[in-house]
Amino acid sequence: MDILLVGLNHTTAPVEIRERLALSEKAIPELLPELHGRIAAKETLLLSTCNRTEVLAVPSGETSPDGKMVLKALADLMRVDFAPTDNVIYEYRGEEAVRHVLRVAAGLDSMVLGEPQILGQVRQAYAAASQAETTGLYVNKILHSALAVGKRVRTETDLGYGALSVGNVAVLLACKVFGDLKAHSGLVVGAGEMAQAAAMHLREQGIRQLCFVNRTYDKAAALAAQFDGEALPFDALHEALEAADIVISSTGAPGYILTHEMFHKVMSRRHTRPIFLVDIAVPRDIDPEINDHENAFLYDIDSLRQVVDQNLARRRQAIPDAEAIVEQMVESYRRWKAGLVVKPVVQMLYERFETTRRCEVGKYGKNFCEKEAEDLEKLTRLIQNKILHHPMDVLKKYDPDSEEGQRALALICEMFDLK
């Protein structure tokens, strides 16, 4: 039986193709039973994120489903135009499929190396498959292994060390300055992608109050509604700076929106209250001379990227350790799968010997007294176990998928007439 993993991700397909097969968390449980039936699989799991869509399928017979057919079936169910091609999709079968699932859960196959969200997404995909009753022996084993690998990689290696986004680094640095952000207020200047990401990280850290200022007030108001904050017009920037403990600025202005002279006036009203400023705009929004002020902590995008680069370097150093954990679990899966075939043969071999032993002991045991019959039972059982011990150990080490393993199992079954 050849397990199939088929999918596409950020390395094989551009976003305009990936988005065609992108499924929401709500849509997966609705489509999965239909996909499961359409591809005639014994077990099916569907994983979909912004950077990948993958189907793990366990065939119902000896023949594995065709990967392109599986993704075409998914596209048809989603009613989208998608023609799977070799340069866009990838297919893994058997042990390679298992290894891929484990690497995905570990964060080794992510666009952002070691990103933590993927483990939760894998867990959600497994929960959806369980709810849809499309899991079974193999998917359960593979996904339990994947979740265990993801947890081990995060606790035993540095693959998830630090932050790899400028916005996240900025907020984590603010946490180092102020500690718990629940007692502090934040100001986001600008309304672009970077500003939105910074606001998200501030909310994740529990910022008490969040204010948004932008030259286009409507955009600031939209962000304020999204992140439960307050919007102010751009001419109220001074007022917002006086109240904020943390300022993250990311506008498209051609020059400084906060000069040293302006900042001096703001600080005269703040007295000795410290302020943490992060300038992630290019060109810069904040005059670098502000960093000379006693109670100001100013970081620009280059200093943040330096932190990001250091964190990424440390994560990359952890790749061999993470890959080693994956390989340990692949080996564990290999032994488990071998056991599914080998253990029944071992059991049948033992039962064949045991049946013969009991038959012969039954014939001759009646010629002995009770004590001698008990000794005969113990002696024959001991001899049997000693004879079978080494052959059974050897059998358990064979990979039933290998040519050598198949020959060994066939020979044992033929020699001892095991059906």
Please write out the topology.
Layout: E1 4-9, H1 15-18, H2 27-38, E2 41-48, E3 52-59, H3 67-78, E4 90-93, H4 95-106, H5 117-131, H6 137-156, H7 166-178, E5 185-189, H8 193-204, E6 209-214, H9 217-226, E7 230-233, H10 237-243, E8 246-249, H11 260-270, E9 275-279, E10 296-300, H12 301-317, H13 319-365, H14 370-397, H15 403-415
Parallel strand pairs: 5-6, 5-8, 6-7, 8-9, 9-10
Antiparallel strand pairs: 1-3, 1-4, 2-3
Principal-axis shape equals elongated
Mean pLDDT: 91
CATH architecture of the largest domain: 2-Layer Sandwich
CATH topology of the largest domain: Beta Polymerase, domain 2
Fraction in helix: 55-70%
Poorly predicted residue ranges? none
Distance between the termini: 20 Å
User: What is the radius of gyration?
Assistant: 31 Å
Strand order of the largest sheet: 7-6-5-8-9-10
Number of helices: 15
The fourth-level CATH homologous superfamily of the largest domain is Glutamyl-tRNA reductase, N-terminal domain
Given helix and strand content, the structural type is alpha/beta
What is the CATH first-level class name of the largest domain? Alpha Beta
Quantity of strands, as a count? 10
Overall structural domain count? 3
Main beta sheet: strand number and arrangement? 6 strands, parallel
